Structure formats: C-alpha cells, structure tokens
Amino acid sequence: MAAVQPYMDVQSLGKRIGDRVLFWDVTFTINERDHVGLIAKNGTGKSTLLSILAGHEGYESGRIIFRNDLKIGYLEQTPSFNPQQTIMEAVLDHLQCAEHIDPTLRAEQMLTRFKIYDHTQRIGSLSGGQVKRVALAKILVNEPDMLILDEPTNHLDLEMIEWLENYLSRTTMSILMVTHDRYFLDRICSVIIEMDDSRIYTYRGNYSYYLEKRQERLDNLSTEIERANNLYRTELEWMRRMPQARGHKARYREEAFYELEKIARQRINERNVRLETGGSYIGSKIFIAKDVCKAFDDNIILSHFNYTFSRYEKLGIVGNNGTGKSTFIKTLLGVEPIDSGSYDIGQTVRFGYYSQEGLSFRENQKVIDAVRDIAEYVDLGNGQRLSASQFLQHFLFTPEEQHTYIAKLSGGERRRLYLCTVLMRNPNFLILDEPTNDLDIVTLQILEEYLQNFRGCIIIVSHDRYFMDKVVDHILVFKGQGDIHDFPGNYTQYREWKNLEKTQQPTQSTPLPHPPRGTKPLRAEGGQDRFLSLRTPLKGREGRGTGGGSWGSSPRPRKLSFKEKQLMAQLEADIERLEAEKKDIEAKLSGGTIEVSKIVELSKRLPLLNEELDEKSMQWLELSEI
Asked: Concatenated DSSP letters for 146-191?
C-alpha cells in the first residue's frame, strides 16, 4: 500500500491584526485525499487562515510546507470578479488545462453542471448565488489537487448545495473548508480540525464523530480542572506557610504548584447559556393572505396566494434562487408592494426582521453602544430583564469584546451583533432571511435553542437543512411562477418524500402523494394549482360577517326540526372526531420520527380528511343559520 502523501504541512503559524492576536502556534497536516473541516468561533481568524494557506495573505510566524507543484483552488467567502467580464471570460481567465482538452468546451460543461446556461452575461448583472456558482465552476474547471473553500454553501439554493455535496463527497481532491452547514460537513469531511482557545484539536472522523469525541475531551478536562482545584487549595496553604528560603525539594514542589495553578484556572469556554424568552403577547389573529398576487414582468412570485397563519406556527420556506422567497417576506412586511389581494395582519403582531442584506452599523461605534442605542434593558417576559451587556454575553460577546469597535469585527461577528439587535426588541413574530450565513456553529446552536423555546411565530428562509430540521414544523416550497406547496414536516422528510415520489409510477387509480397542511388544491385560471387555507376555526363564527352581523338571516325565522337537530348533533360529533384525527396526523408528520412509507400514507389521508371536514363544516354552518 502506497504511503500517504502530505499535501500541506502547517507549522506553528501565527497571525496578528494590529494588537489583536487572531491565532498563534497553529500546527496541522493535510494529506492526499483528506477532506478536512475547520471549526472555530467567529472572530478567531478562520477566513484569514484560509487566505494565508491559499497564498493571498501574509503571516507573522511559523511556516507552511507544500508538496512540490501543488495546485490549489481557493474559493473566497465573497468571490470577486471584474464586473465587466462575461461569465465565460471570467472562467477562462488564467485557466490551465491539459493540452488535449478544449478549455472552452470544458468550461461550458462545468457551467452547465452549475445550471448556468447564458455564458455571455456580465458578472455585474448576476446575483450573489450566481456569482458563487461561477466561482465554483472556475475552480473545478482548473482541476486542482486541493480545494480551499470558505463557506461554499452561502447564497446557494438547496438543490445546488445537494449537488455540490454529492460531487465533493466523491472527489479524490484534498479539501480544507470552513462551513456552517452541518449536514454538508458531516457528509463530506473525514477529518475535523478545531481551533479552540489558541489550541488545535484534530479528530479523525466526520462531524458526528467530532461532536462525540469533543464532548469526551471537555468532560475529561472538566474532571481534571476539578481535581486540580481541590489540590490547589491544599498547595496554596502550603505556599503561604513555607518560609522564603526553601530547599531543593521545596523549590520542586513550588514549580509544580505553578503548573497546577495553570490547570486550576482554566475555563471551559463553552458559553452555551440557555436564553429563555417569553416574547411579547401575541393574539390569536396573526395574518391572513387573501388572493395575493405579485409579479415582476413575466416572473410570477405569488398567484392568488391564500394562507392563514396560526398562532405559534414555525414555518420554513425553501425553493431555488429566484422563486420569490425573499420577495414574499418583503410583501408581508410592506417593504415590497403587492399587485392585488391583501394581507390582514393582527393588531398584536410585532415583527422582528433579520434580512439577508444585514444592518449598517457605525464603524467608529463600540459593540455595547450599538446595542444600548436600541435599549438599555431587554425584557424577557415573566418579570425578567437583562441588561444590554448581559444579553450580548448570551450571544458570545464577552465583556471585553463588547468594547471592541465595530470596524474591527469579522463578518460573522457583525451578523451575530445584527441578530442581537433584532431579538432584543422583543418581537412576537420573527422573520429571518438566511440567518445562518456567516454564523459559527456555536452561535447557531444557541440560536436554534432560542427559536425552539420562542413563544411567538416564526418564518425562516434558509438553505441550512440542519437548522430547518431543528426549528420549523412545516415548510412552504416555492417552485417558481407562483407555484407554492405546503409540506407537513421538516426538510429532510420533504426530501425523502420527493425521492419516494420519483420512484412511484403515477396512475389514474393511484395518484402520487400530495401533502398540503390544512389546505386543499384549487385549479386557478390557466390550469395553475393554487392553495386555499381551511384553518378557520368553527367556534366563534358569529359576528364574522360584514357590519358585525350574523352569517345570514331569514325573513321568516324558524326552529330546527327534530331530524335537523339530530343531524347537527351528529355533525358536531363527526367534526370533533375529524379534527382530532387531523391533529394526530399533523403531530405525527411534524414529529420527525415516522418512516417515509408512513409519511406517504398519512399525506394521502390528510387532503381527504380536510375535504370531509370542510364538507361537514359547511353543513353545520347551514344548519346553524336556521
């Protein structure tokens, strides 16, 4: 068996920015075919380290030894091109292909894989996701020996992330990458390197293995610190009692004391503090979308969209780039006007909006001052309050870091600060557009727990599948041209259902499963499917008509006959039974524990159940108006 060949040997590498030490004495090796994930908190220099290894930036100490003629492909977090270049010109620029390969043909093939078909477009006219795909295509066309990737999934849609994940998991190229996408990390990387408190820890396994072994390391460290603390108290008393003039044995014990003191003063810098919040009160009426339409020329975003948002609902939105996910959010918030229809929003709703674009901070302002400009204290509900400084500590800003100028923050630290400014306003309806971009994994874990315990409503647009699986209870799938489907489960269940759907052969007698949640499909003009919400409760319908009157009145009121009373009683019993069955099905579908075959079975039952419930509800309403 051939010996493993080192591609890159990093020895005692150190980097400062001004008086701030980013990292010091960093040492690790990347071998041929290694797929390595680099994990560290925001602000510890992950992107800077990748830039140094790619030869784009200098360093203060240490050295890097590369294999001779090692060819590296480097993807920056924000790729930069000449905006006047066409896509093809950008990809062919500095392209090095073997003599027998046509570079233009090779570039066309790779761009097609990334679903980029018009190669004459100017770079300056592309979206962030399109630029990222062009950059990835350019790197892979060059066929490097090693890939250095800084947040490769940012700005990519889920379909493209899954394609890239499959491609990289099978490649023989060595990989070093930084990513917040934990499924991506778990399925591609066979080695995890963790930078923690100026130390390097290497784990030979995937992300799941890393989590297990890291916890073992922290448990062992905690035991060691506790033991050292107990011994330290004894030795400290001895140090105080001993005279200044000490013999050889005493001096040896004194040196051991100082080593013990170092261990005892260690802190496990997890800071995974649970942040519970009651949120401000939110009424039963959230928002109702009524026949909403929105389009940009021929690009239809919403087509007669109807939806009733429930109290405490946690909704995820997925779909390819350009299908209108962010536009939908902006129409709901009133940032983008709709063409027709209406949004009826409850009076108690207080939106908290985290946008993809982020927030502009004053560069000469300190972190703590930016937060205090909003509020000195954050109300957590139930009479609990946190100061602005205490709230920042929950999101990994130490008291020292809170006095850092914003100009010195990394991209991830800025996003974390922006997140704090949104959450501290105590909203009861959070709308988060790509909240995971640039955040480190520790921050994501804190945010996930916060959202799971959040007493309010949530809409999340995200390409982070792990994040969506942890937080949302169902998803809206934007398919483009106004075609929107509601799936009663998390993202992983949706993908499994879609894969199962592909394997089934539809027939007239056995239709493919179609699982809307609380909705039924309607045929709109032009043959396009749309959905109508059927979540209006049966109780409290009186007074819901125009002018506050009843649903209808009869010029000659009469009493219900005996048979009609019997029918009404039976309908009420049936409706109660059907509602209970519906609730049970929805709980199972959103629980994440049932098999795919069961998802299909329940998904077939749900629309039939809704139709039966709707029919009996209408009968009950007709009788109630007599």
From this structure: EEEEESTTTT--HHHHHHHHHHHHH--SEEEEE-S-HHHHHHH-SE
By residue count, the chain amounts to 626
CATH of domain 6-210: 3.40.50.300
Angle of helix 128-141 relative to helix 103-113, nearest 10 degrees? 140
Give the Cα separation of 279 and 47 in Å (integer). 35
Give pLDDT tens digits for 197-228: 778 899 999 999 999 999 898 888 778 777 76
Helix (H) or strand (E) holding 526: none
The DSSP code for 256 is H
pLDDT digits (tens, 9 = 90+) for 375-417: 898 877 667 788 999 989 888 898 999 999 999 998 889 999 9
Sort 490 into a burial class: Cβ within 10 Å, 0-12 / 13-18 / 19+.
Answer: buried
SS3 assignment, position 294: strand
Domain range annotation of the chain:
6-210
Among 25, 1, 31, residue whose Cα is nearest residue 190: 31
410 vs 414: CA distance, rounded Å: 6
**Tokens standing for residue 157:** 């849609």
CA dist., res. 305 & res. 624, Å (int): 30
Q: Distance between CA 607 and CA 516 in Å, rounded?
A: 7
CB within 8 Å of 88: residues ≥ 6 apart = 104, 107, 108, 111, 119, 120
